[in-house]
Prior knowledge:
It comes from Handelsmanbacteria sp. (strain RIFCSPLOWO2_12_FULL_64_10). The chain is mainly alpha-helical. The protein has helices at about 1-25, 35-45, 50-60, 70-80, 85-100, 105-120, 130-145, 150-180, 180-195, 200-215, 220-230, 235-260. It is rod-shaped, with a radius of gyration of 38 Å. The protein starts with a helix and ends in a 19-residue tail after the last helix.
Amino acid sequence: MKRMCQRYALIAGALAVLAAGCGGKKALPQRDAQSYFDEARGELEQKRCLKAAELFQRVVINFPGSVLADDAQFGVGEAKLCAKDYTEAVFEYQRLIDEYPNSPLAAEGRYKIAVCYAEQSGGIYLDQTETRKAIAEYQRFIDDYPDSRQVPEARKEMLKLKSKLAAKDARIAEDYLKWGYPESARIYYQRILDAYGDTPWAEDARLGLAVVKARKGEIDAALTDLRQLLSDGVSATTRKRAQEQIEEIEKKRETSRKDFGPKPGATGRPPGGGVRPGS
C-alpha cells in the first residue's frame, strides 16, 4: 500500500512538472490576412516572385471573405508575371476577373492579360500567334474599359504589335516580287492596307501595290498611284522610293518605245516612195 502511494506521488509530480513546462511556453500568434499580404508585397518588391505568389495565395485560400482577397488574387497574377510564368499569370488574372468582377483591379487584370501575351510575342520570322492574341486582348480591354487611364497605353502597344505583323507581311510580299510572283505579292500588300492601315507600313504597301501594277504591265495605273502617293505627304523615305520608281518606270517605257517604234528615216512604205516596179 505504501509502495502504491509512492508510485502515485511520482506520477503526480511528473504531471505537475509537465504542466508547468507547457504553461511556460507562449502560444504562437495567429496571423491575419493583412500580415500575409504585407509580407507578400515585400517579397514581390524584392523580386522574390515565387515566395510572393505563395503568400498571396495564402490570403486567397485562408481568408476568402477578406477585403484583401481580390488584391491578393491580383497579387498572385503579378507574382507569376514577375516569374515570367506567363501562362499561369494569364490564368490568375482571368480568375480575378471571373471571381471578383466588381473589383477595382478587374480592369488592370484584363490589361495585364494582354501584357502577358505581348511578352511572348516573337520576332517577325517566328510564329505570331501570341502577337495576335495580345492585339485581341488589348482591344478587348479597350472595349470593356473605355474610360480606363491605361487605354492610351493599350492603343500604343497595339500599334507596335500590328506594325510587327505588317512588317512580316511586307517581307513576304517583297520576296514574292523578287521571285517573280507579283500577284502573290499583291495579296500581302493589300492585307497590310486592310488589316494594318493605321501603321507606318501602309505607305510601304501602297508603294508595293504600284510596283505590282508596273510588273503586270499596268504602267499608267502604276504611275498614277505613285504620283498620288507623293501628293499625300508621305515620309521622306517613301517619297524617295516612289520617285525612284517613277523614274525607273518612265525610263523603261521610253526604252520600249524606241525598241518597238519606227526606225529613224523609216516611212513605213515600200522603197521608191511606194511606186512598184514596172508600173
